[in-house]
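Tokens in:
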């Protein structure tokens, strides 16, 4: 068998030729994945920024827990064409975690252009190299990696919450790039150097429409919760009634009526009307 034939067989069996003329098994098929950044690349950059890590010798690691986490790891594995198994870790308490890892100088060099470097957790900043057109897909990936989307107050007045955490600089930069100017506070400090951005109610709906606008990105648990809220609670009869009563209370407050009298008139608890008045005073 000639050397050329041997080389062709080795390459078809998922091996690659090294610079020194030797061969080693491929660990990833799509090392050029981030050479051009579109929706999918921006989503994955955000996902890695939130929940991936770069280790020694340019090793890229992903880890997620639970059934949803397993699906996310499978999505990343498929996107990049990662060879090898998904590792499973079963702790004595808590959910099972799943992880993959691979080594790639090319991938790590590309990721470094988007601020993804070793030990980035407390220093990560919003990547200035990203085009504004992919901002929502980047943040969507970040939320899928380590964000929160939930429906709360179902038995009373349902509302949507969208939030994510990160370094204080990153969260501040995110709030500046989300294309909505909200009068109330959205950034909150969690610990030294770490902050959280939160959107509630209608703000969460508006931001969600911007974040989850793309149709060809992974259908994860977070977007399913968002869609559930839109279909079941917004604009639901219950939610619409709540909003009308709130608007009526604002009008009556502007006319000088007391929260106690408003409560009796529109059939809402005094505590709720009082809370609305405090919110109105804060926004004014």
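Residues out:
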């Amino acid at each position: 068998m000639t050397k050329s034939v041997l080389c062709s067989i080795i390459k078809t069996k998922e091996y690659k030729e090294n610079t020194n003329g030797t061969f080693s098994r491929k660990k990833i098929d799509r090392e050029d994945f981030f050479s051009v950044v579109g929706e999918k690349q921006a989503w994955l950059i955000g996902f890695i920024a939130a929940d991936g890590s770069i280790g020694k010798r340019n090793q890229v690691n992903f880890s997620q827990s639970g059934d949803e986490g397993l699906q996310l790891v499978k999505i990343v594995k498929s996107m990049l064409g990662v060879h090898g198994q998904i590792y499973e870790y079963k702790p004595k308490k808590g959910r099972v975690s799943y992880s993959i890892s691979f080594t790639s100088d090319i991938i790590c060099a590309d990721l470094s252009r988007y601020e993804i470097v070793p030990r980035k957790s407390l220093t990560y900043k919003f990547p200035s190299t990203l085009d504004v057109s992919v901002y929502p897909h980047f943040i969507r990936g970040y939320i899928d990696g380590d964000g929160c989307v939930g429906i709360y107050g179902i038995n009373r007045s349902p509302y949507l919450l969208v939030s994510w955490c990160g370094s204080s600089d990153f969260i501040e930069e995110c709030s500046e790039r989300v294309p909505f100017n909200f009068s109330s506070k959205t950034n909150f400090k969690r610990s030294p150097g770490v902050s959280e951005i939160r959107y509630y109610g209608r703000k969460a709906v508006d931001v969600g429409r911007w974040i989850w606008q793309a149709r060809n990105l992974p259908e994860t648990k977070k977007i399913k919760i968002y869609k559930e809220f839109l279909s079941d609670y917004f604009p639901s009869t219950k939610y619409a009634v709540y909003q009308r009563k709130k608007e009526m209370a604002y009008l009556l407050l502007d006319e000088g009526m007391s929260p106690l009298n408003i409560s009796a008139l529109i059939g809402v608890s005094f505590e709720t009307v009082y809370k609305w008045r405090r919110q109105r005073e804060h926004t004014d």
